[in-house]
Amino acid sequence: MKAIITVVGKDKGGIVAGVATKIAELGLNIDDISQTVLDEFFTMMAVVSSDEKHDFTQLRNEFEAFGQTLNVKINIQSAAIFDAMYNI
């Protein structure tokens, strides 16, 4: 399984550490990561993977709830969606 995680919110310390910890707790591996601060807003995109099959609804709910604790919006999407969009 391969997925794309995006994080957006007002910049503050600890966002990368918190999200990376949550990713590890859910049994996912960070394959690639990019983050930046635009004006006062934090943005991050990560490609994650796992050898195990995961329920995206459950992952989405976990990240959404966790994002609320950091006051950021976290979204996860299957990388297969992006592959399908560009192979039409």
TrEMBL record:
This is UPF0237 protein HMPREF9423_1375. InterPro entries: ACT-like_dom_sf (IPR045865), ACT_dom (IPR002912), UPF0237/GcvR_regulator (IPR050990), UPF0237_ACT (IPR022986). Gene3D superfamilies: 3.30.70.260. NCBIfam families: PRK00194.1 (NF001220). Residues 4-77 form the ACT domain. Homodimer. Pfam families: ACT_6. Belongs to the UPF0237 family. It comes from Streptococcus infantis ATCC 700779.
